[in-house]
Task: structure prediction
Amino acid sequence: MVLYIIVGLLLFGLLIAVHEGGHFLAAKGLGVQVNEFSVGMGPAILSRQRGETVYSLRALPLGGYCAMEGEEEDSQNPRSFSRKPAWRKLIILAAGSGMNFLAGFLLVVVLFASAGSFAVPVIRDFAEGFPYAGEEGLQRGDRILSVNGHRVSTYSEAVTQLSAAAGAPMDLVVEREGERVALHDLPLQPREYTVEGERVTMYGLFFATQEATLPNLLAQSWHTCGYFARAVWSGLEMLVRGQVALEDMSGPVGIVSYLGQAGSQGGSLAAGLQNVVYVVALIAVNLAIMNLLPLPALDGGRILLLLVGEVWFLFSGQKLNPRYEAWIHAVGFFLLILLMVFVTFSDIGKLVE
Result:
């Protein structure tokens, strides 16, 4: 388990560095001066200046940063962030999340490519005695498109939504011979079936697999990242509605612990590492979305204030006082740190229980 924790810790730190790398590449490409680009945090182990930028490798393999001229205050430098037009600022601010999403996508591509094939939400066959097959029910070759109104694009999503129905009658939409077919109040539920001589509790569905050709591989990886994104939004919606509490959230400690558990459940070193990479890909997409939330101290909050400032300038002819933005981000950062401290102590409490 320790090995998987170390691998997960390094990959988690790498994701944050990749995020900052997105800001760095966009800033350089759009003519903004970058004073320092650091991989890792804490004391510098290696540091070298090339041109206008100091490149640093720091002791703690978690995170990193991209320090741009004029990012935190106004600067007279024509190549400063503060002097660039809004569209360039927006691209630079969004580039970190874009790189996280790309990293998650590439990790999923590698996983599916190494597997050679993957399951898809297409019904290949039914267990013996399955009672809901036929004209009014499911048929072989049906591709499940939605369950109870929730979109399905991957096998994992199909399993998740079927399980979420908790055995109650469900509404399915399937694609059958190129047409969409709606099945209402289908009493599909887990029951015992005989599979290869053993009694197994299941829904009675066997799903097809698809060869990992390049088009299939890219499409499946894209759909999987879309599934990750919808899972993040679903979690946020549940948090807002009070269906989950702050105590249910996980920070770095909880995430690293979960990575170790996921690896240990693999059964072999190769399978364990695949599980860890899968979870890291999920985290990468999670970071991409969370960083774009319109909250102070996050990239999404900075983008929101940037757009508000542009609208204000359009109607008033005056720019927002940068000190207001600095105060908003400072307060947001302080609250974010408090949240991280709370979540970290909560994670530690769960580990020692």
